[in-house]
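Before a computer can learn anything about folding, someone has to put a protein's shape into writing. The outcome of that step, for a single protein, is printed below:
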Amino acid sequence: MLIETELTPNPATLKFLPGRTVMDSGTRDFATPEEAEASPLADALFRLGDVTGVFFGRDFISVTAAPGVDWPNLKPDVLGILLDHFSADMPLFRQGSAGFSVPPPESDFADDPEDADIVAQIKELIETRVRPAVANDGGDIVYRGFDKGKVYLQMQGACAGCPSSSATLKNGIEQLLKHYVPEVTEVRAV
């Protein structure tokens, strides 16, 4: 089995492509070892000690290294865990654990029902134009709300904490949304 690796805009994160589907639907972001307990694969990666984030996309896994960790030293260990996992056809999640990303409702902004058409346009653009591009960089973006012209988005995977994510939000996503949805005045990360 060959697992390809790609650099991401976030120097702390590498994207690993096992050549097969990782998640049939949705995504899953693990930011702590406790969250990673739901997945034998994420748990094994966090147990390396130098991993601070794991993200499962449709056909990739993004792994974020702790500050100061040298990827040339960590990469063989990550590849070994991934090879063992996928070669043995192990389950991605432990039985009874949620396998997909479900954003916590308390962090969402309540959308005004009068803005339903605007919100639908924003969500459609994010789904068709933004998410595929962000996935290419090893991450994901989740719509969190729209309030008085402001769109609230959450960056995940390689995009969370990436030095260029604020530029992506302002120069890329914000400009795209403003162009197609004139009611959008600003995009903010949450």
Remarks:
- Residues 100-107 have pLDDT under 50 and may be disordered.
- The chain has five helices and eight strands.
